[in-house]
């Protein structure tokens, strides 16, 4: 097992990883920007190293500074968390080249999944269903026309290097195609430095459902069921549920069997998430995330598993030690992402937190690095807390979330707590009757 892990992240996820390390008896090294000198992840770590000025590109994305911090503190592994360098194959390579373990998949698997075209080709060859679309990259408008005619409009042009909705354009009819194709291509070139694009049939009312998997280095792969992440605004998830209100246990088992078989064939290891669109009773793979995700706690609650502990164990060369039959699902979990934002305009609201009181009681979990007196810096993501509830049924989880939101006190800055209260009270949410478009209609954007 590792003796010391450097955590290349900040905020709640740095704390989350520290907690797993502490329970495993592993020492922790925090890294921080000058803006985060008094942050909770620095205060609670065994050691800390300042790695640069506030801007993420100079600190949390500063590979040389992070590797130096790992070397001088004698860390034997690096956990990247989510965001920042977590899906940077070059960083994973560099960590390993410096004689340390990157807690995640191989650089080759990160690269394969980072390019959506190679990710889809790999999954298709292993029997995972896809949205109908082009066979790989679409080099020119003429090819785009032929593909669109074959799969029928509406179609979506997507960037191979995409994610977060950038470099994506809908063409509803042949008249839209040229502008969508050149628009997607130009946006992909400027956003990612890679103008490779592909085409899919546009699904108009899907749910966004993802499957959590975990693999060791011995070919053991298990899944921990699905999360429904359909409640999003401008490609930012707002609330997630495990399981999905739209999926039966039989559908979960079938999808899980297909996905785990595919990842076993690929020789994938560590944690990963397969993203699907679900519409008209069909799943279609769209992307894979090769890291721990923000919403992993809801899976932990329904499966009673510590996913970060498992990531560390398998990275250290341990076997999973259990099989799919040992994974059980109990009750329902919901996560509300609490952002330092105006709940109506969604403008970020950095500033001083003057009062802080977290809810508690049965089935309530808070993952947050907030404290009374903390100054929320303006330089990073606005998510400041995750409120997670677990209860025997979905209705009981909604009731529990409602009362936990009412207990939650964050003063001095505006947060999205009032938005989550409105969602809990919405009949469509209570019925589980929503797609990826529902929230944007609900909040009026
Ligand atoms: C789609 C789609 C409809 N049809 N693909 C958006 C981000 C990217 N990761 C995948 N996205 C979508 N791909 C086809 N063929 C609709 C979206 C989409 C979406 C997907 C998941 C969650 C939120 C979304 C919001 C808008 C569009």
Identify the CATH class of the largest domain: Alpha Beta
Order of strands across the biggest sheet? 13-12-9-10-11-14-19-17
Structural shape:
globular
Strand percent estimate: 25-35%
The CATH topology assignment of the largest domain is: D-amino Acid Aminotransferase, Chain A, domain 1
| Measured distance between first and last alpha carbons | 49 Å
How many domain units? 3
The mean pLDDT is: 97
Q: Per CATH, which architecture of the largest domain?
A: 2-Layer Sandwich
Sheet with most strands: 8 strands, antiparallel
| Rg estimate, integer Å | 22 Å
Quaternary class: single chain
**Percent helix among the residues?**
25-40%
Low-confidence stretches: none
In CATH, the homologous superfamily of the largest domain goes by the name ATP-grasp fold, B domain
- Structural class designation: alpha+beta
Number of strands: 20
Q: How many helical elements?
A: 15
Ions, cofactors and other bound molecules? ligand MV4
General description of the model:
The chain has 15 helices and 20 strands. It has 445 residues and is α+β, with helices and mostly antiparallel strands. It folds into three domains: 4-86, 3-Layer(aba) Sandwich (Rossmann fold); 132-201, ATP-grasp fold, A domain (Dna Ligase, domain 1); 207-442, ATP-grasp fold, B domain (D-amino Acid Aminotransferase, Chain A, domain 1, 2-Layer Sandwich), CATH 3.30.470. It has an eight-stranded antiparallel sheet, with helices on both faces. Strands 3-2-1-4-5 form a five-stranded parallel sheet. Helix 4 (89-97) links the parallel strand 4 (77-79) and strand 5 (101-102). Helix 7 (141-151) crosses helix 8 and helix 12 (394-407) packs antiparallel against helix 13. The longest helix is centred in the middle third of the chain and has 19 residues, at 174-192. The model has no long low-confidence stretch (mean pLDDT 97).
């Amino acid at each position: 097992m590792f003796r010391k892990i450097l955590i290349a992240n900040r905020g709640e996820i740095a704390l989350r990883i520290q907690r797993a390390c502490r329970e495993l008896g592993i020492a922790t090294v925090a890294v921080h920007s000058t803006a985060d000198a008094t942050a909770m992840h620095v205060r609670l770590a065994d050691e800390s190293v300042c790695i640069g000025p506030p801007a993420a590109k100079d600190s949390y994305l500063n590979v040389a500074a992070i590797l130096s911090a790992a070397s001088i503190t004698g860390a034997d592994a690096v956990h990247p968390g989510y965001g920042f360098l977590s899906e940077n194959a070059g960083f994973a390579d560099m960590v390993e080249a410096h004689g340390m373990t990157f807690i995640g998949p191989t650089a080759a698997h990160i690269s394969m999944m980072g390019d959506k075209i190679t990710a889809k080709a790999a999954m298709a060859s292993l029997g995972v269903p896809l949205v109908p679309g082009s066979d790989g990259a679409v080099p020119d408008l003429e090819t785009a026309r032929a593909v669109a005619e074959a799969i029928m409009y509406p179609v979506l042009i997507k960037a191979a290097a995409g994610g977060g909705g950038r470099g994506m354009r809908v063409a509803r009819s042949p008249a839209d195609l040229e502008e969508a194709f050149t628009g997607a291509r130009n946006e992909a070139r400027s956003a990612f430095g890679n103008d490779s694009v592909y085409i899919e049939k546009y699904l108009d009312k899907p749910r966004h459902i993802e499957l959590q998997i975990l693999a060791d280095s011995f070919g053991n792969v298990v899944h921990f069921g699905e999360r429904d992440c359909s409640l999003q605004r401008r490609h930012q998830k707002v609330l997630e549920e495990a399981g999905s209100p739209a999926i039966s246990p039989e559908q979960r088992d079938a999808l899980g069997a297909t996905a785990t078989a595919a990842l076993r064939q690929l020789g994938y290891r560590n944690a990963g998430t397969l993203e699907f669109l679900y519409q008209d009773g069909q799943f279609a793979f769209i992307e894979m995330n090769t890291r721990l995700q923000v919403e992993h706690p809801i899976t932990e609650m329904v499966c009673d598993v510590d996913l970060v502990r498992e990531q560390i164990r398998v990275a250290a060369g341990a076997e999973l030690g259990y099989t799919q039959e040992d994974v059980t699902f109990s009750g329902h979990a919901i996560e509300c992402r609490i952002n330092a934002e105006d709940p109506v305009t969604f403008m970020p609201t950095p500033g001083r937190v003057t009062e802080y009181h977290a809810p508690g009681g049965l089935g309530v979990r808070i993952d947050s690095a907030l404290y009374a007196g903390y100054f929320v810096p303006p330089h990073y993501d606005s998510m400041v807390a995750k409120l997670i509830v677990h209860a025997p049924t979905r209705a009981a989880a909604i009731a529990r979330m409602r009362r936990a939101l009412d207990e939650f006190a964050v003063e001095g800055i505006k947060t999205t707590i009032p938005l989550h209260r409105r969602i809990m009270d919405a009949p469509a949410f209570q019925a589980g009757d929503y797609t990826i478009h529902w929230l944007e209609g609900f909040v009026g954007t």
